């Protein structure tokens, strides 16, 4: 397979195949610009991306938060700005303890 800009190859370990596809470029490469780009993704996925870029672990204290879906594009900025935006749009609340974000349901 020859790949050109905008292409991607996906390797499957289950059947040892390689599939060609057009890349969702902005979404796929967002990590290079330290941008969090999510499309209707679960809270856990968003917190995983926060960890990848900012190095903050997350602890979700209420299972109801796991079903929240988030969409948006967060360019690299202070962590508090990202967390406040998520808090505002989801109704969740957070506290920071060292490098851990503790998410809970807002009372």
Structure description:
- By secondary structure, this protein is α+β, with helices and mostly antiparallel strands.
- The protein has 3 helices and 7 strands, in the order ββαβαββαββ.
- The protein has helices at residues 25-28, 43-54, 79-90; strands at 7-12, 17-22, 36-42, 57-60, 69-74, 92-97, 100-105.
- The strands form 3 sheets. It has a 3-stranded mixed sheet with strand order 4-7-6, covered by helices on one side. Strands 1-2 form a two-stranded antiparallel ribbon. Strands 3-5 form a two-stranded antiparallel sheet.
- The longest helix is centred in the middle third of the chain and has 12 residues, at 43-54.
- The chain is elongated, with a radius of gyration of 16 Å.
> Any low-confidence stretches, pLDDT <50, length ≥5?
none
User: How many E strands?
Assistant: 7
Helix content: 25-40%
Task: Specify the biggest β-sheet.
Answer: 3 strands, mixed
Please write the string of helix (H) and strand (E) elements.
EEHEHEEHEE
Q: What class do helices, strands and sheet pairing give?
A: alpha+beta
Q: Radius of gyration from the CA trace?
A: 16 Å
Mean pLDDT: 87
Principal-axes shape call: elongated
As laid out across the biggest beta sheet, the strand order is: 4-7-6
Can you summarize this structure?
The chain has 107 residues and is of the alpha+beta class. It has helices spanning 25-28, 43-54, 79-90, and strands at residues 7-12, 17-22, 36-42, 57-60, 69-74, 92-97, 100-105.
Features:
107 residues, alpha+beta, 3-stranded mixed sheet, two-stranded antiparallel ribbon, 3 helices, 26% helix, elongated
